[in-house]
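Re: [ENG-882] Designed sequences occasionally contain unexpected residues at chain ends

Forwarding the minimal case from QA. C-alpha cells:
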C-alpha cells in the first residue's frame, strides 16, 4: 500500500465532526455496558466452570477490563461459551 493509499484509507475510516464523535461515544458506551454484563455473568458462574475456561475468580476484573478488551487482545464473549 502506498502512502497515498494509506492516507486515503485512514481518513475514510472515521467520520469527521459531530456525527463521528457521537458514533465513537456510543460504541464506547455499548462496549462498557457489555463488559459490565460479562463481568456479572462470570461472577455468577461456579468455580469449576471458571477453571475450565482458565480464569480464576480474582482474574475476572482483569479479563473484563475495558482497557484490555479495547486494546485488540480479543476480549471474551461468554455468550458463545456453552
Amino acid at each position: 500500500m502506498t502512502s497515498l493509499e494509506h492516507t486515503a484509507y485512514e481518513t475514510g475510516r472515521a467520520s469527521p465532526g459531530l456525527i463521528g464523535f457521537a458514533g465513537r461515544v456510543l460504541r464506547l458506551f455499548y462496549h462498557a455496558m457489555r463488559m459490565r454484563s460479562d463481568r456479572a455473568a462470570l461472577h455468577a458462574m461456579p468455580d469449576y466452570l471458571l477453571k475450565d475456561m482458565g480464569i480464576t475468580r480474582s482474574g475476572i476484573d482483569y479479563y473484563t477490563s475495558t482497557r484490555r478488551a479495547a486494546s485488540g487482545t480479543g476480549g471474551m464473549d461468554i455468550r458463545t461459551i456453552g
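QA comment: On inspection the terminal residues look reasonable. The mean pLDDT is 75. Proposing we downgrade this to a documentation issue.
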